[in-house]
């Protein structure tokens, strides 16, 4: 026999059980050599399982040292311990601890997955092991479809998967009838003959009798350590166990190869877990779907509103101010105030910040050209009006100084009038009747959004304001003044400077200033507030969905603690466990995102029938991206705490739970 493999010195394990502390191990010295078959025997509660967990690196000593191959395990980090477990130990439990959702082969494969082997190597090896142990017919069976003896043989195959240098069997026959129990013990004996070190914990002397050495336990102490009186001769080992080719055996410097295999395993387990609890998954999904739908439709709605607003702003001249009579909006005296006059315009025009100012008088009127009639509105303005409001002159010209001074009977018509009265013929020089006043057409305007939004297809004509005042309306006060500001002048500042000037001229504030830029800005601000509100609603719904995910994941971790314990025992790293649960929550969220996007698409299609065309909602790539990104983030954020809980679970405790 070779040298000492496992070495315990002064091993003490204490448990804090409320006020009193329990000493499960009270100072144990034990050496186990490679190739031994040792039975740890003692009554229930004597500390056998505690010792097994220590030996298998699932648990740590409170005091004393434990060396494997001369290496002190106390100094090792969690991942190094996981590596040690993978490389050296195979666990066989009293209650088999197979994962019920996996087939026999898949159960046997698990340790190799965490050792980073690819499917092409591990799958045939798992099959070969099961066939060698007489389960060739039951490869695809679930644990529940197997007898106790068969399940225990599957778990032995699992213990051998990574080599099984040391096999730790804690009451391996405890749940079996005596006949099956002896079969299992024969198998373990055979493994010992093939070179595996075996440590078996049992309370049953008949089981202990298989071993070559019996270490008897009582109350956390070794009371005797002797060779078995008549150890059973092992049956002649007929066939060796299948082994993985030398070069592929797990080595301490096992590379982090095949992380994809571990990821794929995690994803596979996540899908299985979701499928097992379909109703629960569906309800969790519902929360996420609602969240995603609100986020996506909010984004789509926001974009639609933005498009519509951009439409409204198009062509709008924002660098203008308009002055109207009246103390404020809705002043009942507005119509009686007659103080807005042409000299105000002259005064304003002299201000440094004013580029152009024009008086405006307006009235509805009848229009006539030869035998054609129409009704529209006539506006008295100055020549600068058109430039001030951004109305292009497409043909001819506007009024000049002398037209204003002479109260000339000239008119500028808009494209609607041109279309109605002149069709495709040239209107310049023709005479039309504005009310009863004959005027010569000198110009035609083009389109302008502001004009359109105020009148659509109405007929508009413009005459000099002096002409309108004297010859059409018989008054000299104005309806409003339009001011175009110089480029770069801030409308608000201009308004602040213009107001005192006008008050000084009128001695009272009997006018009001329409600052269109300000209006638009407050409109945009309102819209931005709305968008923010909508986005907040989306985020809140998604948060609620995320909390649902977290809730379910926390429950799931508790429910599956035994599974987690098994995985850790066969060598899973903490990161493997964390990854598995994170993938599960991200998967739920991504499925939710896919359903949510589909539902949002349906909503967009349906709303097209109800909303005005310019509010039409589209699922833009940005909305879909938002959905996927927020879903992933939700999964990670709300899955993080449960996944961390799972990874931090104490494997001994986890295995002890039901
Ligand atoms: P055996 O496997 O020989 O039946 P155990 O190793 O399971 O014995 O337990 C040894 C002693 O340690 C028992 O008295 C038991 O109550 C105690 N013990 C085991 N696990 C815990 C624990 N997690 N917390 C408190 N006491 C424990
Ligand atoms: Mg026990």
TrEMBL record:
The chain crosses the membrane at residues 532-558, 579-603, 623-641. GO terms for biological process: response to antibiotic. GO terms for cellular component: membrane protein complex; plasma membrane. GO terms for molecular function: ATP binding; ATP hydrolysis activity; transmembrane transporter activity. Residues 6-244 form the ABC transporter domain. InterPro entries: AAA+_ATPase, ABC3_permease_C, ABC_transporter-like_ATP-bd, ABC_transporter-like_CS, MacB-like_ATP-bd, MacB_PCD, Macrolide_Exporter_MacB, P-loop_NTPase. It is found in: Cell inner membrane. It is a multi-pass membrane protein. Its main location: membrane. Residues 226-257 are annotated as: Disordered. It comes from the Bacteria. CDD domains: ABC_MJ0796_LolCDE_FtsE. Keywords: Antibiotic resistance, ATP-binding, Cell inner membrane, Cell membrane, Membrane, Nucleotide-binding, Translocase, Transmembrane, Transmembrane helix, Transport. SMART domains: AAA. Belongs to the ABC transporter superfamily. Macrolide exporter (TC 3.A.1.122) family. This is MacB family efflux pump subunit. The gene is macB.
């Amino acid at each position: 026999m070779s040298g000492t493999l496992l070495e315990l010195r002064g091993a003490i394990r204490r448990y804090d059980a409320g006020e009193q502390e329990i000493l499960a191990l009270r100072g144990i010295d034990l050496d186990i050599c490679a190739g031994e078959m040792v039975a740890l025997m003692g009554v229930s509660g004597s500390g056998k399982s505690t010792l097994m967990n220590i030996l298998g690196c699932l648990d740590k000593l409170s005091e004393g040292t434990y060396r494997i191959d001369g290496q002190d395990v106390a100094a090792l980090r969690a991942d190094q311990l996981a590596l040690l477990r993978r490389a050296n130990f195979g666990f066989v439990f009293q209650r088999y601890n197979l994962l019920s959702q996996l087939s026999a082969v898949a159960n046997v494969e698990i340790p190799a997955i965490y050792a980073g082997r690819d499917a092409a190597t591990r799958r045939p090896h798992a099959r070969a092991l099961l066939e060698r142990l007489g389960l060739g017919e039951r490869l695809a069976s679930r644990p529940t479809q197997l007898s106790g003896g068969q399940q225990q043989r599957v778990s032995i195959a699992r213990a051998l998967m990574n080599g099984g240098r040391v096999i730790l069997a804690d009451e391996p026959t405890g749940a079996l009838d005596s006949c099956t129990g002896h079969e299992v013990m024969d198998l373990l004996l055979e493994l010992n003959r093939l070179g595996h070190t075996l440590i078996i914990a049992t309370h049953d002397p008949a089981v202990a009798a298989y071993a070559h050495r019996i270490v008897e336990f009582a109350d956390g102490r070794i009371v005797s350590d002797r060779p078995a009186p008549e150890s059973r001769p092992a049956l002649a080992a007929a066939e060796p166990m299948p082994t993985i080719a030398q070069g592929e055996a797990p080595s301490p410097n096992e590379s982090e190869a095949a992380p994809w295999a571990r990821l794929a395993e995690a994803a596979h387990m996540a899908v299985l877990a979701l499928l097992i609890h379909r109703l629960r998954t569906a309800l969790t999904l519902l929360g996420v779907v609602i969240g995603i739908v609100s986020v996506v439709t909010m984004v789509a709605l926001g974009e639609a509103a933005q498009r519509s607003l951009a439409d409204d702003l198009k062509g709008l001249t924002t660098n203008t101010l308009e002055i109207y009579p009246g103390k404020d909006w809705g002043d009942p005296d507005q119509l009686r105030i007659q103080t807005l006059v042409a000299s105000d315009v002259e005064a304003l025009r002299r201000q440094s910040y004013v580029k152009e100012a024009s008086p405006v008088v307006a009235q509805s009127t009848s229009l006539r050209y030869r035998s054609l009639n129409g009704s529209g509105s006539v506006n008295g303005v100055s020549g600068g009006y058109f430039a001030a409001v951004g109305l292009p002159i497409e043909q001819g010209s506007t009024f000049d100084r002398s037209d204003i001074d002479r109260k000339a009977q000239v008119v500028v018509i808009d494209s609607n009038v041109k279309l109605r009265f002149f069709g495709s013929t040239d209107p310049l020089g023709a005479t039309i009747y504005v009310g009863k006043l004959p005027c010569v057409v000198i110009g035609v305007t083009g389109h302008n959004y502001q004009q359109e939004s105020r009148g659509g297809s109405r007929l508009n004509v413009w005459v000099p304001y002096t002409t309108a005042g004297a010859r059409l309306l018989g008054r000299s006060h104005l309806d409003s003044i339009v001011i175009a500001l110089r480029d770069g002048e801030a409308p608000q500042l201009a308004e602040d400077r213009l107001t005192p000037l006008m008050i000084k001229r009128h001695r009272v504030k009997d006018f009001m200033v329409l600052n269109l830029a300000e209006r638009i800005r407050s409109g945009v601000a309102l819209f931005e507030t709305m968008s923010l509100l909508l986005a907040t609603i989306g985020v809140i719904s998604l948060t609620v969905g995320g909390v649902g995910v977290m809730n379910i994941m926390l429950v799931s971790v508790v429910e599956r603690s035994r599974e987690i314990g098994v995985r850790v025992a066969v060598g899973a790293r903490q990161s493997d466990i964390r990854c598995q649960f994170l993938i599960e929550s991200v998967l739920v969220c991504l499925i939710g995102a896919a359903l949510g996007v589909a539902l949002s698409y349906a909503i967009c299609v349906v709303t097209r029938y109800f909303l005005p065309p310019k509010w039409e909602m589209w699922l833009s790539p940005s909305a879909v991206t938002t959905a996927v990104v927020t879903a992933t983030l939700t999964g990670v954020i709300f899955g993080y705490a449960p996944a961390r809980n799972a990874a931090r679970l104490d494997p001994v405790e986890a295995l002890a739970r039901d």
